[in-house]
Amino acid sequence: NAGVTQTPKFQVLKTGQSMTLQCAQDMNHNSMYWYRQDPGMGLRLIYYSASEGTTDKGEVPNGYNVSRLNKREFSLRLESAAPSQTSVYFCASSEYQGAYGYTFGSGTRLTVV
Amino acid sequence: AQSVAQPEDQVNVAEGNPLTVKCTYSVSGNPYLFWYVQYPNRGLQFLLKYITGDNLVKGSYGFEAEFNKSQTSFHLKKPSALVSDSALYFCAVRQGGAGKSTFGDGTTLTVKP
């Protein structure tokens, strides 16, 4: 029972490079989310997908794009990485639109130099 | 807009003593409230939730939380702390559709032997 799987776990990018963070869940959840975690700032919502086929911006969407590939997979793309995007990124999923809480992946630690 | 405040960055307690980690929230309508725990280099794990019903909710690892509507608080408690409870704790509130949750900045709990 894998839950939410994120890849890669670690990544170092140079400024201007692009990359895609992958997220997959095997719990048949409808809703999926991308958050970033920065020291002293808690978690901030980047994008979310309430259900397959829909995506919406969260609190800090600038510089990111997402794709809900199917019910299981929700990817986050950085088109032109900037040092301000150095962070730990968490994917989460939920049933019943988050009414019972989230299941989180183990995170991707991204450094942009 | 919904918001969550965790007024203490750090809480220190001795093993065996009771612990409280504070959380206050601001939301229109009835809140869905959650506590999560994060161990070093790990993703967040769900501890407990309040949706409706009894103001004292019980969760994983012996934790409980008290919902107080008049004070808009949802404090996390445990009668007897363990060294293994040392971690980063996040309070979160969900409101409305799509299950978006807003997280507090986190409180680091340190339990000393």
H/E element string of chain B?
Answer: EEEEEEEEEEEE
Structural class of chain B: mainly beta
Q: Could you tell me the radius of gyration of chain B in angstroms? A: 13 Å
Structure summary, number of beta strands of chain B: 12
Distance between the termini of chain A: 36 Å
| Rg over CA atoms of chain A | 13 Å
Give a short account of the largest sheet of chain A. Answer: 7 strands, mixed
- Gross morphology of chain B is globular
Structure, described:
The complex is a heterodimer of chains A (113) and B (113). Chain A has strands spanning 4-7, 10-13, 19-25, 31-37, 43-49, 56-57, 64-68, 74-78, 87-94, 103-104, 108-112. Chain A has 113 residues and is mainly β. The radius of gyration of chain A is 13 Å and the shape is globular. Chain A starts with a strand and ends with a strand. Chain B is an all-beta fold and 113 residues long. Chain B contains no helices and twelve strands. Classes of the chains: A mainly beta (113), B mainly beta (113). Chain A binds chain B through residues 4, 31, 33, 35, 40-45, 48, 50, 56, 58, 90, 92, 94, 96-107, and chain B through 9, 32, 34, 36, 42-46, 49, 51, 90, 94, 97-106.
Could you provide a short overview of the structure?
Chain A has 113 residues and is mostly beta strands.
